[in-house]
Design goal:
CATH architecture of the largest domain: Up-down Bundle
Mean pLDDT: 86
Number of strands: 12
Number of domains: 2
Strand content: 5-15%
Radius of gyration: 24 Å
Strand order of the largest sheet: 5-4-1-6-9-8
CATH superfamily of the largest domain: CDP-alcohol phosphotransferase transmembrane (TM) domain
Low-confidence stretches: none
CATH class of the largest domain: Mainly Alpha
Helix content: 55-70%
């Protein structure tokens, strides 16, 4: 029963209907998706004998006291009526912060990390029994920076709204910039909560943001001040939607490698389209040939940055092990590229009519970025290979 990453025992308490919908998914589907995202093999633990489960349940249902097949291995226990993001289970499984037990905001044991051997190879009656003697997270309702929300009240509209709001409010990205914290997240969260119950996927939102960015780029290319400013405002809206797709993905447990790749690719095309629009606007001031050349230089830098950043993010766990200044500086550069603060800068440039000097600076800065990131990544990877032998 144990997958490559261990097992997840998903408890269905007697008073909980696993078919209850929260954030666009049933409680049972959400719990199964959390287990899968953490690389765990799920087993359902039904604490109410004789209750029929939804046909989508999938895994074999066990009862408390039933034997666990494996003789050893990681086991995570979770209640199906708990709301969290997949990162919380991944952190718990990896022992990132050292705690083995997390409580939800209602004061109940919600997540437990243990082993088959510690459980005596038997399914415990409840999470409280499994948590006995283990290290507890210091704050109820949190596991490190991850929110743990009780979903026992989601059967009422008010309870569901409160739980969705609590979960979304904890979905900040560690790479958020100043504008994200001050503006974008305040606009994205209400929109995300409105979309949670609808059959809207994160990838659909990403594509919508990309299409809107093309419209914004066309507006930025127009002469004058008013239309480029409108384009910059539309670009700012794409930054809000970029927050929304990530919030929906984490809140609905729909994070995928394909979605991550699509998000990075979309961001790259948005950057390139934006500066090509600025290049067209700057033709009268710089001359057609110069504007084309600068736009092409930036486009090359943007695509080169995409390749370097994608490679760096795929190998992040490896190069961060180097512990050197190269890895720390590379992490800072990646955070700089992925921040959405540049959309406000485009707005200020459009309002001031400074597209031409901005284009010149951006074209050369793009080259410095990808070359610097490539050198830092190469050095950090070399350091990661050497450090284990020291």
């Amino acid at each position: 029963m144990t997958g490559s990453g261990g097992s997840a025992l998903i408890y269905i308490p007697p008073a909980v209907d696993p078919a209850t919908v929260f954030g666009g998914r049933t409680l049972l589907d959400r719990a199964l998706a959390l287990a899968a995202a953490a690389g765990l093999q799920p087993q359902l633990i039904d604490c109410s004998a004789g209750r029929p489960l939804p046909s989508s349940a999938g895994p074999t249902t066990l009862r408390p006291g039933a034997p666990l097949v494996a003789a050893e291995g990681l086991v995570l226990l979770l209640r199906c009526d708990v709301g969290c993001v997949a990162g919380a289970l991944r952190d718990l499984a990896a022992g990132v912060s050292g705690e083995a037990v997390a409580y939800d905001d209602a004061g109940r044991v919600a997540l437990v990390r243990t082993t088959v051997a510690a459980l005596g190879a038997v399914v415990p009656p409840d999470l409280e029994a499994a948590a006995h003697g283990l290290t507890v997270a210091p704050r109820p309702g949190w596991l490190g920076s991850r929110r743990i929300v009780a979903l026992d009240a989601v059967t009422t509209p008010a309870g569901r709204k409160r739980a969705e709001t609590d979960l979304l409010n904890a979905l900040d990205n560690p790479r958020d910039g100043i504008v994200d914290r001050v503006l974008n997240r305040h606009l994205s969260r209400p929109l995300s909560r409105a979309l949670l119950s609808l059959p809207v996927t994160p990838n659909q939102i990403t594509i919508a943001a990309l299409l809107l960015a093309f419209v914004a780029a066309a507006a930025l290319a127009q002469p004058g001040i008013a239309t480029p400013v409108l384009g910059a405002l539309l670009l700012q809206l794409t930054a809000v939607l970029d927050c929304v797709d990530g919030e929906i993905a984490r809140a609905k447990v729909l994070e995928t490698e394909w979605g991550e790749w699509l998000d990075i690719t979309s961001d790259t095309f948005i950057h390139v389209a934006t500066f090509l629009g600025i290049a067209v606007h700057a033709w009268p001031e710089l001359g057609s040939e110069t504007a084309k050349w600068l736009g092409g230089v930036f486009a090359f830098g943007g695509l080169a940055s995409f390749v370097v950043v994608t490679r760096a993010e795929k190998t992040e766990q490896r190069w961060q092990r180097s512990g050197g200044w190269q890895g720390r500086l590379l992490a800072t550069l990646l955070a700089t590229l992925t921040t959405r603060d540049s959309s406000v800068l485009v707005l200020l440039v459009a309002a001031a009519g400074l597209q031409a000097p901005f284009l010149v600076a951006a074209a050369f800065a793009a080259q410095l970025f990808w070359v610097g990131a490539l050198l830092l990544h190469t050095s950090a990877m070399r350091g990661a290979r050497v450090s284990p032998r020291r």
